[in-house]
Write a structure and sequence with these properties.
Elements lengths: L2 H17 L4 E4 L6 E4 L2 H15 L2 H27 L2 H4 L9 H9 L1
Antiparallel strand pairs: 1-2
Helix pairs in contact: 3-5
Length: 108
């Protein structure tokens, strides 16, 4: 496809996305990967919805749970790094705490 053809196709996709605040799915060849093109107005609406959700008690609780989980993972990494030789400590960065510990954080 030539550059001018690609530009015309992209312009048409943009028109479709902005004409009625539609989402345009762009499938990436033979893979399952899909990109989504949305209008600026739809993006603004999604951002407003996220801002509203961020101010709710549920969002605050979710933030606290994620923060606690991150702290557990960081502590586990620090402990693993102290217990392993330096050359192996790099692999320890992916160590995950026991499922029972994570379950308690996520349910709390």
């Amino acid at each position: 496809m030539s550059l001018p053809d690609a530009q015309m196709n992209l312009a048409e996709l943009c028109r479709q996305a902005t004409s009625r605040n539609r989402r345009v799915e762009i499938h990436c060849g033979e893979t399952d990967e899909v990109a989504v093109l949305i209008s600026r107005d739809e993006l603004a609406t999604l951002e407003q919805a996220l801002a509203i959700f961020a101010g709710t008690d549920q969002a605050v609780k979710l933030h606290q749970k994620v923060s606690a989980l991150c702290e557990l993972l960081a502590e586990d990494d620090r402990q693993a790094s102290r217990q392993l030789p330096h050359c192996i400590a790099i692999e320890a960065e992916t160590t995950i705490p026991q499922a029972s510990t994570l379950h308690g954080v996520l349910r709390g």
